[in-house]
Structures are given as C-alpha cells and as structure tokens.
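User: I'm preparing a small set of examples for a lab meeting where we compare how different chains pack in three dimensions. I only have the primary sequence for this one, and I'd like the structure in token form so I can line it up with the others. Please keep the answer compact; I'll paste it straight into my notes.
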Amino acid sequence: MAYWKLPVWVGAIVVLIIGGFLVGGPGVGLAAGALVGLLLIIWAVGLRPRGGIGDAPDPSLRRRLLVVVSQAVEDPATTAAIAGEAGVDGSRDLAEVMVLAPARVSFFDRWASDLEPARRAAQDTLVISVASLAKVGVVAEARVGDEDIVQAVEDQVGSFRATEVVLVTASDAEDPAAAEAAAELAERLRTDFRHLVVAG
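Assistant: Understood. Below is the structure token output for the 200-residue chain.
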C-alpha cells in the first residue's frame, strides 16, 4: 500500500463515523462505526502474505519437482514436458517428483461445509495424472492440497523442499482462478517455476 493511502483511509473512516453521530445521533453513529468495523474485519481476513515462497535454488541440493495439477494430466504433450522437467530423458539429473492436486471446493460445498466431493475429485485427478506420468517413466508421490492453489504450493514447497515447481492448468478463459494463481506464483516463487497450459 502506498504511504499516503493509510492516512486517507483513516481520515475517511473518522469522517464517516463522526458524520453519522452529527447527522443521525448516537444510533446512526454507532451503526456507522459497527459497519466500518465489520468491513475492516472482512478486508483483513481476505489479506494474504505477499512475501516470497520457498528458498532460492541451491545447486548442491537434490532436485525435487513439485507438479501442481488443477486438472488431470493425461495428454502426451503435457506428460512429455513433465517427464523432461523430471529428467527422465537423461538431459538433466533425475528429480524426486510429487504431484499435488488442490481440492477445488465449490461455493455451495464450502457453504455446507461439505469438503468430501472436492477431495474425491482431487484424488481422481491424482490417480489419472500419476498413472499417465508413470507411462512415460515418471515415478511420483501424490497429495491432495489446499483449495487455494497458491496456498497449496506454499504448504508443499516448505515440507517437500521443492527446488522446482510446474503448474498445469486449463486455459486462462477456462480457469481464470488458476491463471491468477500462475501469475502470483511466477511473481512470488523463489524456486524455478514453469506454467503448462493444457489445451481443450
């Protein structure tokens, strides 16, 4: 946030609350204060840390490739690209591979606190993806992650100690949330990052 924005926001809040007291009396002033407080809480909850994710690449460490799939990976071009990143073709050191599928929870499932359908869908995505990668020689561990792609990556980069991250998504038009996540990861990840888009 720019240095001048905070005083402007604080001034606007003070003017709103005092104006409520002056125009409508204590009832309106208190209501304005409560509304401002509620909006500040909602805004604060939506904030996310914006620092870097992971450690800078260290050539002395064994390569660990985190493959994040927002949809099942089964087409030959994508599996070949991931196999190349994993070093299966011998062009680089062989990497330890983990495939991570975020549990993409729908609005209604979240509202009903029913996360099971999202976890099942993520597990199906993992089964298809890991089996497709095994056909091209990539042996991978699999995990279901947080519904937020960036948070899922942040969680796993720390515990898996990934040196490289590959994000596989549908096109930007088909999955705008994944496109936003890809842009944020490209900006925040300290490890090597590649974004693969699966057509269709």
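A couple of notes for your slides: The longest helix spans residues 26-46. Strands lie at 64-69, 96-102, 140-145, 164-169, 192-197.

User: Perfect, thanks.
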